[in-house]
Amino acid sequence: MNFESLLMDFFTRDDIDGLTRDIGESLKCPIIVADNAFRIVSYYAPPEFKDQFFWSIIRSRELNYELTDLARMGRSGGETGLTSVQNSDYKGRVLDLTYDGISMGYLVCVDLGGRLSSVEEGDFALMCAVLSKELVFKYHRDQLISSSGEALLISLLNGEFDSESAFQFQSSATYLASVGPVRLAVIEPDRHSLRGAPTETLGRAIDESFPDGHPFIYDHRILIFLNDITLKSLPGLASRYGLIAAVTEQIDRLYSLPQHYESAKCVLEYMSASHSRQVAMVEDFREYLMLERLSHGADLTDPRISQLLKHDVARGTEYVRTLYHYLDCHRSIQAACQRLQAHRNTVIYRIGRIKEEFDIDGELEEGSLNLFLSAALALWQIEPEEFVRSRVDEL
Q: Which domains does the chain carry?
């Protein structure tokens, strides 16, 4: 096989994608390069290759369980070195990429048209040696980059740390080691017009308003650390540049940052859709977030509440809303009337119809927690704003 382009690229460039392409084109077969944690580093496939199994692995960004087992066992399969993989119509090889006795990753080769059986073992050895050395380069380069706090935070948000102790060990040499309890502002710069202000001006304003905020970009959003003092500067910045921002609850452990970020992102999506405010505190959305997460699980809603919801949607009644607030007010008609801003007779009439038509007795019902949560989930589906505090931000 002709490895001239592979070796030239190896000696003149530091490009794992280019080397992977060179090897794939030499073999005329699809290949995948994974690191020693089985995460996909690079891949190559001829334009005409449409195998769903191959592309599902690429989308998942890591080797599936069967390929992982093959890599761990170092099994190459049969005399030809090829082995079958479940859910795929193709055979292939999984080769270990080692450098100086240390496993750096794995090379997965898909046999296209029987081409792999004609490749000499010495050629495979050369390919693996080149890729192994390139993975060493990549490892040291990534280690150098990850010495900054920003890169560590991005890795944390990407779910790349296996344990909190590993994160703390790497962050101990960065500014993150001295970060105390903070809040995180997650800002959407793209959803609203910047009103003609250049990005450089926004960047300077952020640096001036939040000198210890350590701002960085993640998933096209601006993230800034805040304390109780700098928090007060956020509404002015948002108003000036037409931004929307969600501020997390206090973060005592940086390792929990991904959970706080996901909550803030969910709040931002609501704010963007509702155009209700520019700056919001995540703690004002606790009920909303709880119901939003419950809604993605198994449907445990009481069937009678489901029928109640269908009736409301079809006929424009407010039975679900009335029942929820009635139960939330500990079955107090007077308190429910105040919440609903409805006349006493109206609320009493609705409660009566709910009992007669849907066999739901709000006063005597056993398992009232299930009834209450079912009513909350049903109301959330049609009026999620009911679970967002209506007060204006008081920052």
A: 4-145 (3.30.450.40), 180-293 (3.30.70), 303-387 (no CATH)
